[in-house]
Amino acid sequence: MHRRWFINKTNPEFLSYITKSASISPVLAQVLINRGIRTPEAIREFMRPSATALSDPFELSGMRAAVERIQAALKKNERVLVHGDYDADGLTATAIVVRAMTQGGLDVRYFIPGRMIHGYGFTPQAVELAMECGARLIITVDCGITSFEAAAAARRAGIDVIITDHHEPLRKRNDGHNGDSDSAEQPTDEPVIPEALSVINPKLPGHAEGVGSLSGAGVAFKLIHALALEGIPGFSVDSAFSLLDLAAVGTVADVVPLSGENRVLVREGLKLMQAAGRPGLRALRDVCNLSGREMKSGLLSYTMVPRINAAGRMAESRDVVRLLLTGDDAEAAELSAWLDRLNAERQATEEVVYQEAMAKLEGSGVDGAVVLAGEGWHQGVLGIVASRIAEAYYRPTFILSVEDRVAKGSGRSIPVFDICKGLAECSHLLLSFGGHRQAAGVRLNTSDIRTFHKAINELVKRSVDSRDLTPTIEIDALVSLSDITHPLMEEIAMLEPFGYGNAEPLFGSRGLEVVNPRSVGHNHLKMRLKKFAQSMDTIGFDMWGVFDDLNQPTVVDAAFTPGFNEWNGNRYLQLVVKALRPSR
Fold it and tell me: How far is it, in rounded angstroms, from Cα 331 to Cα 329?
């Protein structure tokens, strides 16, 4: 796919000022400026985040009421039902709340809905379960913000509900008109929330700066942190912070921006994971062959997270919470092996659905958006297939499974298009929807699929500039090969953890001579790049075909991330090539 190359540049005087005042290299200074970190103070804070920088959890709206109700449940010895979700974010959030409240002396049960049996979210079925088990309080994690029917059912049953969530609330349009045309305010989209005892969601007004992008696990941690700060017997700050490894997994899994509080949660949580204290996570590391390797966010997202998610996609997820809570190494090893098998099954199923979807797409073509539906496609892999197609064609993509005249599925978007807002504009065609800016779930009648495709297609074309439908390679800085040194790598390491919102730095270099290009492994491009007397080893994963399509140029411009290659006990610098073009 053709890509536009965009190279960030900064006024040389300002770049020199930041370099000297923060005592960093010009290359790192440019990277930080690109991320909006433009003062020496902000740079020091970003590069040395600390748990002490976390905001007061009571600054989140609804937190005080939630803590007081949990205190009352503890005093009355009431049973509490924690309602989670079947993905990695919801499962780690459930484990956080269950572990902390059990240690705090509460009588806790938990419920994880099944994707196939119950569907997504907090539903009236869960209220019936709470009644059956005698719970007087329901705490939702990673769900509930649009569960109006379930909240009403709980209220009728005399059961209090605390909703902790981070998904977008429904909003009603307020045009600002109050009867006086001279004093009309700007239009606003007011959030509409369920009638619960407390609703804690950083997407709602009234929260501290920097917490708006928390994951479900992040919000769950803030609740436990608040209980600890309140000085409730059985809850302590140390025990709350011991749950940061779980919060890190959920935060990385949900692909929220790794900035602000998320950056602190993941950085501190990865330290705990490196220490390998929790048997469940230690066993997962073993089954992923990560023992002895430094735990990084990227590694976590490609190895452990897919296995945790595999249960919700292919089976039932309740046992994942058991894995995260267990103190028994043998049980942890058994459950991790089960997840590994499920993940292999998920990969095979995903490939079948992907190939069938691609066959349909080749016959229909691509315009503003992609909407594909198939009979009996496995619902557990639709989101992954949508992601793959959205990335390949750079279009918002919806993959739907049809059964009994109803289509259920997942949508994935591109950065310039808010998929949730798009679905809101098409809501008259949908039975239900919900999610984030870049990912959503959707349900509609099969008779409306074609009309929905047309509507979302036109919406994308109307709201997105055609130039933005071509992906951009955003390069942090132009560098020479001599800039890639061990000291620079030490500086880059201080930017960890990398992920959405804090991508690994991407550098570019022009006019590089290609030396000994060859295909290795499964279509990987191996070569050396040289300019003047300097040369470096490079690897481009799955890029031999790209290089071949360019007619194997002898001089190239390259976009790459620097890294290390370890082989036979040796460790040396290597460039990981992300994009190539013939040098002009």
Answer: 6
User: What b-and-e string marks burial along 47-79, b requiring 16 or more CB atoms within 10 Å of the CB?
Assistant: bebeeeebbebbebbbbebbbebbeebbeeebb
- The CA angle 63-67-69, to the nearest 5 degrees, is 120
Domain 365-467 matching CATH 2.60.40.2470: the answer reads no
SS3 536: strand
Of 375 and 2, the structure prediction assigns the larger pLDDT to 375
Q: Three-state SS for 136?
A: strand
Q: Any idea which residue has 């290609």 for tokens?
A: 514
User: Cβ of 179: how many Cβ atoms within 10 Å?
Assistant: 6
pTM, two decimal places: 0.89
The percent of residues in the chain predicted with pLDDT above 90, rounded, is: 81
For residue 532, give both structure tokens: 């003047």
Fold observed for domain 57-245:
inorganic pyrophosphatase (n-terminal core) (3.90.1640)
Q: Tell whether the model's pLDDT for residue 391 goes beyond 70.
A: yes
Contacts of 85 (CB under 8 A, 6+ apart): 91, 93, 94, 112, 113, 120, 121, 141, 142, 143, 216, 312
Cα(214)–Cα(247) distance, integer angstroms: 10
More confident residue, 67 or 435: 67
Helix ranges restricted to H, 275-403: 279-287, 297-302, 304-314, 318-325, 329-364, 382-393
Q: Is the pLDDT of residue 89 over 60?
A: yes
The backbone region for 261, taken as left when phi is positive above 0, alpha when psi lies in -120 to 50, beta otherwise, is alpha
- pLDDT averaged over every residue in the chain: 92
Tokens coding 29: 């200074």
Cβ–Cβ contacts within 10 Å for residue 187, how many?
Answer: 10
Ranges of each domain in the chain: 57-245, 365-467, 473-582
474-507 per-position pLDDT tens digit: 999 999 999 999 999 999 999 999 998 899 999 9
- Using the structure block, give the residue that is written with the tokens 């933005």: 468
Residue 370 CA to residue 461 CA, distance in Å, equals 12
Fold classification of 473-582 (topology level): OB fold (Dihydrolipoamide Acetyltransferase, E2P) (2.40.50)
